[in-house]
Amino acid sequence: MATTQDVPASDDRLVWYAGYGSNLLRHRFELYIKGGKPQGSTKEYAGCRDKTAPQGDQEITLQGELYFADRSTGWEAAVAFIRPTHPRATTYGRMFLITYGQFNDVFRQENGKRMPGAVIVPPYEQLTRATEWQIEGVRLYGRMMKIGTQGEYPILTFSATRNDFVIGAPSEAYIQMIVAGLEETYPCMLKSAILEYLGHADGIRDKIPADVLTRWILGNRVL
User: Fold this and answer.
1) CA 7, CA 4: separation in Å to the nearest integer?
2) Type and span of the H or E element at 124
3) E strand or H helix at 183, and its extent?
4) Coarse DSSP helix, strand, coil percentages of the chain, rounded to the nearest 5 percent
5) Is the bond into 38 cis (omega within 30 degrees of 0)?
6) Is 202 helix (H, G, I), strand (E, B) or coil?
7) Closest CA to 48 of 1, 111, 5, 107
8) Separation between Cα atoms, residue 105 and residue 95, nearest integer Å
9) Which of 60, 132, 58 is nearest to 91 (CA)?
10) Contact, 82 vs 20, CB < 8 A?
11) How do residues 76-94 score in pLDDT, each as one tens digit?
12) DSSP annotation of 157
């Protein structure tokens, strides 16, 4: 088993981490870096060993279908995944430029692993060569994918460990954080477009009534 000594907390090897759920909101993502508890979640994060802010961030669209499934102990409800097998679908994302060591620490925290801890992401050299990995010993986000490169750095995301996670409804707090992240990342995206985008996702479409979702996203405001 690799240890934290196998990779420094901070180095000059960089990756783009692409998120598409609550990590669309920069403040929420930075809790993985600096530590803290997201609003609406019961979980407190220790943060990365290297608490330096991301060196860059920008929007990215991912090929694949957004859906909600399984259950997060922090959100006490289903969370976001993507199905890469639906290439004609588009999922709105945001990517952050962080060090390889930070990426490992973010991945550990996403999967409920204690911090600090062993290196569980593939070696950096593999991240620049292969395109997909199944990470052992993680229950939730065990499928890691390279979806491209920008500059010389790989763009990495992850999704469900298994394809048979039970579809479930996300919490109001989780949805509102995604909405805030979409508005921050895509400032020209209208509320009506956000409502349509999320309303089509499995886990919302058949499990959250349209009027409830509208209230979560719009409150008392009109489209």
Assistant:
1) 6
2) helix 124-127
3) helix 172-185
4) 30, 25, 45
5) no
6) strand
7) 107
8) 16
9) 60
10) yes
11) 999 999 998 777 899 999 9
12) E
CB neighbours (10 Å) of residue 4?
A: 16
* Number of domains the chain is built from: 1
Identify the bridge partners of residue 144 per DSSP, sorted by sequence position.
133, 158
pLDDT digits (tens, 9 = 90+) for 110-128: 999 999 999 999 999 998 8
* Beta-ladder partners of 143: 134, 159
What CA–CA distance (Å, rounded) separates 192 from 96? 27
Q: In what order do the strands lie in the sheet with 56-63?
A: 56-63, 90-99, 14-19, 153-159, 143-150, 132-134
Residue type, 96: F
Residue 65 lies in domain: 1-223
Whole-angstrom CA distances from 204 to 96, 128, 209 are 27, 35, 8
DSSP 8-state code for residue 60: E
Q: Give me the CATH number covering residue 47.
A: 3.10.490.10
Does pTM top 0.90 for this prediction?
yes
Rounded-to-integer distance, Cα 223 and Cα 218, Å: 8
